User: Fold this.
Amino acid sequence: MEILMAFVIGILFTCATYLMLSKSILRIIIGTGLLSHGAHLLLLTMGGLKKGAVPLLTEEAASYVDPLPQALILTAIVISFGVTAFLLVLAYRAYQELGTDDMERLKGNDVNE
Amino acid sequence: MSSLHWAVFAPFLLAIFVPTFYKRFRSIHTGWLILGLPILLFVYFLQFISITKGGNTFTASATWIPSLEIGIDFYVDGLGLLFALLITGIGSLVILYSIYYLSKEKEKLNQFYVYLLLFMGAMLGVVLSDNLIVLYMFWEFTSLSSFLLIGYWNDRDRSRYGAQKSLLITVLGGLGMFGGFIILSFMGGTFSIRELVAQSDTLINHPLFIPALLLVLLGAFTKSAQFPFHIWLPGAMEAPTPVSAYLHSATMVKAGIYLVARLSPVFAESGVWLWVVSVVGLVTLFWGSFTAVKQTDLKSLLAYSTVSQLGLIMSLLGLGAAALHYEDLDDNIYMAATVAAIFHLINHATFKGSLFMAAGIVDHETGTRDIRKLGGLMPFMPITFTITVIGGFSMAGLPPFNGFLSKEMFFTGMIHTLQLDIFNMETWGLLFPVVAWVASVFTFIYSMILVFKTFTGKAQLEKLEKKPHEAPIGMLISPVILVSLVIIFGFFPNLLSSTLIEPAVASIQPTLTSHDFHVHISFWHGWTTELWMTIGVVILGTLLTLTLTKWIPIYKVFPEKYTLNKVYDGILSLLDQWTNQLNKKVITGSIRSYLIYIFSFFFLILVYALFIKDAFHIDLTNLAPIGIYELVLVLAMVIGAISIIFAKSRLTSIIILGAVGYTVSLFFVLFRAPDLALTQLVIETISVALFLLCFYHLPKLASRSEERITFRLNNALVSIGVGIVVTLVALSAHSQKLFNPISDYYLENAYKEAGGKNVVNVILVDFRGMDTMFEIAVLGIAALGIFAMIRLRLTRRNKES
Assistant:
């Protein structure tokens, strides 16, 4: 399963990178969303998959899955949500003020052209 | 702090007060307030003669950075004292001259004297420092103050150009020299010059010996305007004439000479030193004298002549190194070269200083320095003429002036190379006296041009801005003192020999102090080969000077395009162009290209690391089984991720992203992570809602066309590369578990210590609560930021108002 997950994560990263290299802001932000999914799954996979019960002590199982990566991922999810939300509003405002979502057209005017 | 420290730092201290003096006493020329200091210092340094004469040195140290063994250690020996006397002596004369040269009303005298004092202090520091780092510090101080002085008239283009050029070249060399010093101190384990000299016989076997040697020489050559770094010196002639006389003839350009002389005991055992120093010196000597002839500006002519004379001294110092290889000889003839170098150094300072001052007087009293406009000034300016004649004849090497003696000694040194049988000298040695002789002929020619074209012939008064007349007496005092010295040293050279030259030579060649070398200085009579050479120089030189108009077109053979100045300008503009082009190519302003750089680098560095460290392993044991649910979810996720790329409308891609997010939360369910599944579900929902809010409900903009991502091979390759690397790293990392996780502790103690049964939540708020606190902070900041972005509309308000 871990090997399969490694490939799935690789595909997620590929798609995310490809989207981030595109011109539209929306696609870039979608790319970052995919990238964070990939990263979260990577964290989980590296902690080991399916080696016991849910980490709730009421289960009273012989072994539990590793709780630490889960805590880390939870933190990461919340942070990436905050950043994504901020990015989205930023893009929305840029869209409103500048009238475009094309990154190539958002180049600064003061750059050597 | 000893009196020596006070002496070196006195100019710096005085410089602090100059602006106050300038403002407080406007009626007095600021120079008068400065003049006392160099005279005082000169007298102070004179008293050291009695110490150095006996071969002793005076040392003084003060701590600066003791943990790095950097102390402000000064010491006075023969060589240091000679330079200190030159600096303070000529410094006094130059300040006196500048009082009459620079107008009190028109010039920014406060700046001038501050720079000049900075320079004087820095120069004293260079010649008296024992610590290499301190020496380097003062060295850069001289570069900097010289830069300020050259650019003194900073409203002129040429001044700024000259100042920039001199700074670039001397700092280039200075940095090289700094590198050499660092290597040297690594080799010897000390920054002290004297301690390095003491271990010179072990240093030569060090593998870094040659790099250190070359780097130190780079510093010395750039500072002393040796070929091909001499180009800054003629450019520096834009400085006021007192500066040219002081910095660019007598003191700063001799800092490189000083460095070569000072470090000779360290490096001179090596054949590289002998060859590089003497050949570069000779080339400079020849090129400088050859180029000086075609100059039409008095100061440019003097600048090239300085270049050539510095080359002469440098070549003599190089050949003096040969003396170290014949320690067993009773009568060490190669010693003569070093003696000649020191003697000529003094002589050059006297006659070149006076010539610059004379040129300044001509400029000041006629309004031009162009030789083509000058002529026939003798009846108007008899004293200046006398000064120029004496200085010029001394420069040409004519008796009875001191230049004659040192030129004879120079020939002696060069002839002795014929007897050298080290480092291939026996095959190429003959070139040395020949080149030296030819260069002397050119020296004679330009000296004659300087004297006679300016002062004899027909006066062209209509071309001059002012009616020429003799300079005020105050302006003449300094050059008269200098030419008197030219004559005095010419008739009584032995005044100097035991007081200054012998101690100086002793410090350049400390291993040879037992030899009786003062004989060479007094031995200056007799019908020797050298005298015949001088006679030949005079005859051929006179002939060539008289027929100057016939052969001057020879200079047109070398087109202007190939001069070294053009090379320098070319290098600068090429650098400018290249960096500009590179900048334009790389810094495109497009986010996409930067991301490509970053991702490509990420790919390359990780693949390289995996490959070079042989880090890729795959371990198929200890894997979780793949069930049907997982397979379905994997398929759903892969299809979803890939189809986003091909989705045409934004809405579709947003929905698919949501689907992928929900799949992720299903994965969390499968992989026994209920908290994650819950959070992921909620957050994905809110995210999708936000996406929709931002992009679906936006008004249709004209530029907003729904289209597929245009396929680009570069992007595809880069992203596939990133994916592969991540997969490889994940596989490899999973296959190499180094130790067990620490989670057992959490599982055991979650209830015992923290009283909770949901281990993930206990970790979040108890074991690792700090993370959570700042994650809350992140959310808070994001919320505030969003609020601010939406509410704060400064541009619109500006437009309305």
Observations:
- Chain A has a mean pLDDT of 85.
